[in-house]
Amino acid sequence: MSFSYPILPGGHLLAIEGLEPPHISALLELAESYALLNRSGKTQRDLLKGRTLINLFFEDSTRTRTSFELAGKRLGADVINMSVSQSSVNKGETLIDTASTLNAMHCDLLVVRHAQSGAPALLSQKVSACVINAGDGTHEHPTQALLDALTIRRRKGRLEGLTVAICGDVLHSRVARSNIHLLSAMNARVRIVGPPTLIPAEVARMGVEVHHDMRSGLEGADVVMMLRLQKERMVGGLVPSSREFFRFYGLDAEKLAWAKPDAIVMHPGPMNRGIEIDSAIADDPERSVIGEQVEMGVAVRMAVLDVLARELRRNA
Q1: How distant is the alpha carbon of residue 145 from its chain centre?
Q2: Which residues contact 3 (CB under 8 A, 6 or more apart)?
Q3: Residue 3 has what pLDDT?
Q4: Which regions of 73-149 does DSSP assign to beta strands (E)?
Q5: What's the N-to-C CA distance of the chain in angstroms?
Q6: Per-residue DSSP letter, 273
Q7: Ordered mean pLDDT values, 10 residues apiece, the chain (316 residues)
Q8: 92 DSSP assignment
Q9: CA 57, CA 111: separation in Å to the nearest integer?
């Protein structure tokens, strides 16, 4: 697949906000080709041969870090996973010092997860590598939104015109923010569903519908996207108890029945079963696409690395 324009202007992927629909569509088309390639078993490519990819994760991650590692290796890159718990950062090294170290290593592609919103953007200004935001604070998680969009499109055939209900802890969710930007850009109808304490005040200005009742939020929905309850980011009693949260906002068969009969169920993981989602729903092969989300994560990250590698070659 050839492109006559930069899909990721600036040579980084820091956010979904600001990407135009043609850029998003091109990334999804490329990711679809990688999904088919991965399923065929013909996964080893040489697009990143001689390139170095560093996964720099300041927060714990399993799915995202592993899928970036797998994506890089399948494209032929040399992949290095930097464990922050064992690095100089815990000895007082600043983010700027880290950038200087990475520049000295001549890294080509840098995948960053950080607890502070804006940290990947700051690094992108200080390093010569292409930077990919793998989640920063409560800001964005762009590749998660792309893999969610790819999963939806594969199941529903389109994004435009679909009704997507994003439910739960929206306040602390970078996944929700990236999905709101992407789905709105692609002309989907986005609903936010959750208790008032977990809905950010500014979300209504993002052009979404806000619901505090699961029945009204899920009624007629094509996609039900559950979010992880992020207790580690909460200050104070934003939810009364896990049991009460599940009673009113956890997805079970009764609540799912309010959505369309063919509605699909999503979750970015890790799941808190019995709090955000009932195990019977999470494991339902007819409705749940949670496993497919993980699979599409590798394909999307291969597509992003591919596009950035083309920018590296163009600017060489």
Answers
A1: 4
A2: 26, 307, 310
A3: 66
A4: 78-83, 109-114, 130-136
A5: 20
A6: B
A7: 73 96 96 95 84 93 94 96 69 79 92 94 94 96 98 98 97 96 98 95 90 98 95 59 89 98 97 95 97 97 95 79
A8: T
A9: 8
Contact (CB, 8 A) for 299 and 32: yes
- The answer to whether the CB of 110 falls within 8 A of the CB of 56 is yes
Is the Cβ–Cβ distance between 35 and 150 less than 8 Å? Answer: yes
Residues in the chain: 316
Give the Cα separation of 127 and 123 in Å (integer).
6
Q: Which of 290, 304, 299, 303 is closest to 39 using CA atoms?
A: 299
252-267 burial string, b = 16+ CB within 10 Å, else e? beebbebbbeebbbbb
Count Cβ atoms within 10 A of the Cβ of residue 248 and give its class: 0-12 exposed, 13-18 middle, 19 or more buried: middle
Q: What is the pTM of this model?
A: 0.94
Count helices and strands (H / E) in the chain: 11, 9
Q: What is the pLDDT of residue 235?
A: 54
Secondary structure class of 297 (helix, strand, coil): helix
Structure tokens at 8: 């990721």
pLDDT of 202: 87
> Residue 178 in contact with residue 147, Cβ under 8 Å?
no
